[in-house]
Write a structure and sequence with these properties.
The protein is built from eight helices and five strands, in the order H-H-E-E-E-H-E-E-H-H-H-H-H. The chain has 184 residues and is of the alpha+beta class. It has a five-stranded mixed sheet. Strand 1 and strand 2 form a beta hairpin. Helix 4 packs antiparallel against helix 6, helix 6 packs antiparallel against helix 7 and helix 7 crosses helix 8. The longest helix has 22 residues.
C-alpha cells in the first residue's frame, strides 16, 4: 500500500492543504496566472517564472523618467514601463507572462545604457518602432505558447496590432502593417 496520503501510517487521507503544505496556494496561483507571487524585503511585488528561474521586480510607481515620457507620449496609469531591470506599473502589480515577456525584451535592448535607450526611444519614432516590434512579437509568442486556440491567438494578435498602431506609440505604423510585423 502506498504511503502517500497517510498520516502516521493510518489509512486516512490527509486534507488537501496539509498534503500541499504552506506553499500550496502559491502553486495553485502560479498554475492559474502564470507567475509566482512574492514580495521582496522592500515590499515590491515580485513575479518569478518558475521554469526560467528569473526574477522580475514589479514596482507600483512611475519610472524615474516619467516627465520625459509624458512630454512625448500620451501616458495613462494603465501603461507599464521597463526601466533598468524593473517593470514600473503605476496601477497594478500582477502582470501576465505575456507582458513580462514584452518588458524583458526591453531590458535586453536597454542593456547597461538605460538612459540613452530612453532618450533615443522618445526622440526617434523609427527607433521606437524597431524596439517595439520585437517586444510585441515576444508577447505574442508567449501568448501562443500558452494558448493553442487559434481564434484566441488571432484575437490577441489584433489587440496587439491595435496597441502598436495607437497614439501611445506615436502612430508609427498602421493596423495592417502592425499585424504583419508582429506575426513575423
Amino acid at each position: 500500500m502506498s504511503r502517500r496520503g497517510q498520516v502516521f501510517g493510518d489509512p486516512v487521507k490527509a486534507p488537501e492543504f496539509d498534503r500541499r503544505g504552506f506553499e500550496g496556494w502559491r502553486q495553485r496561483w502560479w498554475r492559474l496566472t502564470g507567475f509566482w507571487p512574492g514580495v521582496d524585503r522592500l515590499g515590491h511585488l515580485v513575479a518569478l517564472e518558475v521554469g526560467i528561474l528569473e526574477v522580475t521586480e514589479v514596482v507600483q510607481d512611475w519610472p524615474p523618467n516619467i516627465e520625459a515620457i509624458r512630454a512625448v507620449l500620451p501616458v495613462t496609469e494603465r501603461n507599464i514601463f521597463a526601466y533598468g531591470g524593473k517593470i514600473y506599473s503605476p496601477s497594478r502589480g500582477d502582470l501576465s507572462r505575456e507582458l513580462i515577456a514584452h518588458e524583458r525584451v526591453h531590458f535586453q535592448q536597454q542593456g547597461d545604457l538605460v538612459d540613452l535607450w530612453w532618450e533615443m526611444f522618445l526622440a526617434d519614432p523609427e527607433f521606437r518602432l524597431t524596439q517595439e516590434i520585437p517586444a510585441h512579437k515576444a508577447e505574442y509568442t508567449e501568448f501562443c505558447r500558452n494558448c493553442k486556440d487559434r481564434n484566441r491567438q488571432v484575437e490577441y494578435l489584433r489587440s496587439l496590432a491595435r496597441r502598436l498602431s495607437a497614439p501611445m506609440y506615436g502612430g508609427m505604423i498602421d493596423f495592417k502593417q502592425a499585424m504583419k510585423a508582429i506575426r513575423g
